[in-house]
Every structure is written in C-alpha cells, then in structure tokens.
Design brief:
- It is built from six helices and eight strands.
- The chain is globular, with a radius of gyration of 19 Å.
- Residues 1-22 have low confidence and may be disordered.
- Helix 4 runs parallel beside helix 5.
- With 180 residues, it is an alpha+beta fold.
- The strands form two sheets. It has a five-stranded mixed β-barrel.
- The protein has one domain (31-175): OB fold (Dihydrolipoamide Acetyltransferase, E2P) (Beta Barrel).
Amino acid sequence: MIAPLLALFACYSLDDVPILVGAHCAQPREATVIRVLDGDTLQLDSCEGETVRLLGVSAPEVAHDVADACVSDPGSGDGQFDECYGPESRSFLGDLLVGKTVRLEFDATCADRYGRTLAYVYLPAAEAGTDEDVFVNERILLLGYGKVYEEFDDILQAPVLYTAEYAATSASAGLWGVCE
C-alpha cells in the first residue's frame, strides 16, 4: 500500500509525502450539555457523561465550588482559587449552553492527555435564537472570556480563533480589560 502512495507522489521516502490537511478524527455529532465545569470544559448528556474541552480555547481556571445539576454540595473549593475572570467565563458558558443541544465537530486531535474530548462546539441557530449557528469557541475568545490555547499545532480553525482573540484584545474586552 505504501509503495503505490510513494509512486503516486513520486517520492522515495515517507518524509517526502506531503501532509494532507483536513483529516478529522471523528464525525460531527450532537449532544446535550448537562453542566459546565469552567470556561472551556463541558459535560455532556449525563452527570457521568463525556467531558469536552473546547479546542483551541483556554479560559481562566476556577475553583470547582459551584453547585450545579450534578453536584449539589461541591464543598468550599479549599486549596483552589479562581484566576482573574474565571468565574465570569464559567458563568457565560453555562448561561449559553447548559440544557441545550450542541453540535460537536472535530479536528486531527480528538482527546487531550486527561482523556477529555477536544471539539469545536456549535450552538445551532434554533437553540441560540439567532439567524446562524454560534461557533462557541470563537464567541468565547471574541468576548474576552478566554485566550487561544496553543498546545496543539493542528488546529484548522486557528485563523478564526486568532482573529477573534485579536478583536478582543484590541477592544479590551473581558479579561483583556480587567486582568493583568
């Protein structure tokens, strides 16, 4: 199988074969957001359900001390702390997504080192009450609830995400106007 590919590309080693952009690790699918853990992490379908990290987004950390549908008494968050704009980021994402059905789309990397699913999250227009779907990863950056997360270098939506972050920094939106 490799020999025909090498012949096709007129190459002599796999190092010479061009990388083709666009290979995704999973097909798009829908799920319901049951809870928001922080400004870039959701839990789907049930309290024991899949955890999703928004691909290309890093929101400020928060102490996990807020009651929700899955944890009625989370404790005091002793030993944990909220980073600047963390609670606002978590609140924004929760208000936007909890109880709603979202569409997950994937890139070349489908999971992080913690086993969380990495996804682009879209809120369908009907759920958002808008004329078009909301690209949640972009919206968080555009409003200054997070920064671009550069851990992965295979993010196809990087230009969109960097453009949103640049707009937020230029406008001193969200954390860009409050946090040092």
